[in-house]
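Structure tokens please, single chain.
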Amino acid sequence: MRTPIVAGNWKMNKTVEDARALVSEMVPNLSKVNGVEKVLCPTFVSIVAVSNLLEGTEIGLGAQNMHWEENGAFTGEVSPVMVSEFCQYVIIGHSERRAYFAETDETVNKKVKAAQAIGLIPIVCVGESLEENKAGETAVIVTNQILEGLKELDPALAPKVVVAYEPIWAIGTGLTATPEDANAVVKDVIRPALARLYGKETAQAIRVQYGGSVKGDNALDFFSQPDIDGALVGGAALKADDFIKIAQAAAG
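Here you go.
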């Protein structure tokens, strides 16, 4: 049975002081939620502060991005070695990284391999745009993102990948896919693509989150779907009560 995972992607929000305040407010009740992996992904500048506040809890810490090289002349980048000093998880290939910072399936693949090589759990984002969705291209787009972004991984490590299905048109817009439609993409597109790479057993073991305007009042609708294993949460992760409600919904 797959353990649900709820991760909060803070994006470019919260100063270090704000981050400390939010985590301090969140930790007492979030720590009481069992049966679900809980992960906070603050900005790089807040990672050390958040790490200190999470010490001694079962709440995981993740980065929002990383480079695939361990070191070098890559101004402004952060390496897997640096991320792994504090984090257990890293988000890779978010649609905003793809849209604004030239992230490709090739760079996603390099980052996933680099993350796994150093012991990080990659949360790999896939999803189609509104235009692609309306054109009936969801299956083609998402399948290709899986096949190219997750190819040639160590088969022993492949089950540890987390996939986040985030239809681009539902991120930060207030729009959401219906739970049934989201589940259908996971069941009929994502898991078959994973099976092509690593076999049916591994495809069923890999956890797939949904992301896209998930809130405390709609999370349970998504988590009741058999193939959705939690959420990658954006705006609601910036509010302690909302994120705790989402984690509680995932825990059942």
